[in-house]
Q: What sequence folds into this?
């Protein structure tokens, strides 16, 4: 395998560069560099790491607030959040229901836009990207695990894992198949690759969702209460699996939870209360 | 099959009952268009054959200038007997020509007892005319016979006007070209129904031999040609005109389409009606399935938001939904074409009893023609309508906040 950060003037990477290999750390978007030839460098901050929080920051939030509604219906989900996440961190986002955990992950995942403030991913000010470029950023740099797995019910486990890879377009079908097999094997579901979500248990579905999130070797994985619909033991196994694979990939993982035992599994805990960051050590 | 197409296809059949209803609506619309068009084209075919086999033949040949000038100077545009014979032989030798006959039209009065009735006469060659009268029904008596040069047949309306019955002897009176009054006694051999009221009310047919004696003129007015295939008329016309030019014959030709005004007007009217039906079918299909597609997409809004969250762009989501609509339209359209073909065959086997159309004198047993052009159009209309019906729901599905949708 070649180094992850290939100079821009290097020869186009071979197909092996895109193969899922959980033994290799995940790629990070560096200014003017990408190991993924289809990846478009984003934003004017590229090339000026200091202006965007420095090269050691995967995620940076600057005075971010998110307000829903107006007038009497106005609800502050996040208020003045400043936050920095470094590469490879395994972070729990903790707080009671309504504290702003989901809003925070949605903003980091570019699924939502802040009312005020700035969100930077890999030194990129995502507020300056249009919808298509944000989608491209998610497709190539991020993985998502949702509370209810959110698998496509008409697709098999393998097809669900393959779907995001299909839209990255650089992969041949054989390479996608290899990546899918590897990912499913890694989450222990190689023998259930042909089953649809309806024929899997809750824990198995969530493991398929983990495989889907990680198959493309994302730099950043966001999991919004991924264990909420699972029993405690299964949930703990899913978190442990995410941690294990994330460590192998060198990916940065953020998961939201209010379960103290799952919070304890994290390297770092970000605590929210009433939309305010109360602890980010 | 690519994963994208597999996903689209599986989504189409995700809710089988709903998909079945949508497919039924599309197929029914498509089949309705095919059947409606098939009935109309069957009527067109009936009218066309009436015009060709009952009155005009496929082609008529006249002396050059006839069409513009014969009403003012009828005698100037007649073809001498020897030249007419030459033309008939020439035309008979052309491949694709089934039959050729000479005709002479004239008008005058029928004197029958104390009744005097105006008529339009056609002098024909009895041995040839039968083939040009296949769509003419003899309702009483016998047809024309070469052996009976003074035996005529009259339209049913004309016969009623002079109270003629088969076997009756009447006197035909007319003016010769020089203006002299001439008359000949003829026997009414039969009464026919030609399908058009105006034709039946005024027309009689008489062997050319008697007409030539009545008019004191053996020249021919029209040479009428019947072809093996109606579709070959334009090619045959061009070939004949080239032959005439080579032979130095100053002639002009007109096809049945130029002459069959009733057919043309009816066709024009019905084609407009068919256009309206197409519009109605498209509207019904769009309205019928827009709601179904809209509900289907609404139910999947979280799934679609998830796909967007995973990085699929709006156009990819829109493409997926349009691909699903295209598959639905494709399947529904093909089912509609098959259904239309089955209905057309079944109805044609039984027959549709039609009343007399406007201007016609007889009802007829119609069918449903399976017209490939209409079937192709109906298929693409179904496909296009289904795509059109899905445009707005698909556009809506790609809008809005991903986070807000996932929160629900």
A:
């Amino acid at each position: 395998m070649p180094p992850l950060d290939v100079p821009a003037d290097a020869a186009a990477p071979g197909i092996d560069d895109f193969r899922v290999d959980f033994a290799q750390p995940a790629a990070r978007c560096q200014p003017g560099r990408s190991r993924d030839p289809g990846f478009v460098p984003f934003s004017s901050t590229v090339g000026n790491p200091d202006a965007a929080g420095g090269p050691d920051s995967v995620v940076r939030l600057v005075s971010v607030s998110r307000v829903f509604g107006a007038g009497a219906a106005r609800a502050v989900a996040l208020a003045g959040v400043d936050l920095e996440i470094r590469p490879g961190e395994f972070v729990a986002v903790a707080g009671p229901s309504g504290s702003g955990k989901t809003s925070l992950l949605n903003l980091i995942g570019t699924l939502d836009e802040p009312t005020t403030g700035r969100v930077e991913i890999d030194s990129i000010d995502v507020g300056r990207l249009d919808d298509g470029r944000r989608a491209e950023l998610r497709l190539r740099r991020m993985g998502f695990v949702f509370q209810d797995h959110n698998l496509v019910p008409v697709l098999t486990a393998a097809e669900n894992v393959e779907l995001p890879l299909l839209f990255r377009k650089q992969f041949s079908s054989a390479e996608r198949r290899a990546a899918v097999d590897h990912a499913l094997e890694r989450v222990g579901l190689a023998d259930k690759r042909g089953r649809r979500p309806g024929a899997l248990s809750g824990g198995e579905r969530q493991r398929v969702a983990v495989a889907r999130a990680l198959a493309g070797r994302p730099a950043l994985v966001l999991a919004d209460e991924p264990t909420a619909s699972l029993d405690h033991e299964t949930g703990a196994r899913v978190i442990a699996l995410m941690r294990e694979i994330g460590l192998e990939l060198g990916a940065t993982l953020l998961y939201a939870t209010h379960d103290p035992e799952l919070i304890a599994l994290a390297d770092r805990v970000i605590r929210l209360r009433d939309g305010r960051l109360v602890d980010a050590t | 099959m690519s994963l994208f197409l597999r996903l689209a296809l599986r989504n189409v059949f995700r809710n089988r009952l709903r998909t079945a209803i949508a497919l039924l609506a599309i197929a029914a619309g498509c089949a309705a268009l095919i059947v409606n068009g098939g009935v109309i084209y069957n009527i067109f075919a009936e009218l066309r054959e009436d015009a060709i086999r009952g009155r005009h033949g496929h082609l008529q040949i006249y002396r050059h200038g006839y069409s513009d000038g014969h009403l003012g100077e009828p005698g100037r545009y007649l073809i001498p007997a020897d030249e007419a014979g030459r033309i008939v032989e020439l035309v008979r030798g052309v491949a694709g020509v089934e039959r050729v006959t000479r005709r002479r039209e004239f008008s005058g009065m029928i004197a029958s007892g104390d009744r005097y009735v105006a008529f339009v006469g056609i002098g024909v060659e009895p041995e040839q005319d039968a083939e040009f009268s296949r769509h003419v029904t003899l309702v009483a008596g016998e047809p024309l016979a070469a052996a009976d040069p003074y035996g005529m047949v009259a339209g049913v309306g004309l016969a009623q006007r002079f109270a003629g019955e088969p076997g009756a002897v009447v006197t035909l009176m007319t003016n010769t070209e020089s203006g002299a009054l001439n008359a000949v006694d003829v026997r009414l051999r039969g009464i026919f129904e030609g399908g058009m009221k105006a034709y039946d009310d005024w027309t009689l047919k008489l062997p050319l031999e008697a007409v030539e004696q009545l008019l004191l003129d053996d020249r021919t007015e029209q040479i009428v040609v019947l072809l093996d295939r109606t579709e070959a008329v334009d090619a045959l016309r061009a070939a004949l005109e080239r032959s005439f030019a080579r032979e130095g014959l100053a002639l002009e030709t007109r096809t049945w389409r130029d002459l069959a005004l009733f057919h043309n007007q009816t066709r024009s009217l019905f084609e407009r009606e068919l256009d309206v039906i197409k519009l109605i079918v498209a509207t019904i299909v769009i309205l019928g399935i827009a709601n179904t597609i809209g509900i289907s997409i609404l139910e999947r809004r979280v799934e679609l938001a998830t796909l967007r969250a995973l990085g699929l762009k709006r156009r990819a989501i829109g493409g997926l939904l349009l691909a699903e609509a295209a598959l639905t339209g494709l399947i529904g359209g093909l089912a509609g074409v098959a259904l239309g073909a089955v209905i057309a065959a079944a109805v044609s086997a039984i027959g549709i009893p039609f009343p007399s159309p406007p201007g016609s004198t007889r009802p007829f047993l119609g069918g449903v023609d399976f017209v490939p052009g209409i079937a192709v159009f109906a298929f693409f209309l179904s496909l296009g309508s289904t795509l059109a019906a899905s445009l707005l729901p698909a556009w809506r599905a790609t809008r809005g906040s991903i986070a807000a949708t996932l929160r629900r």
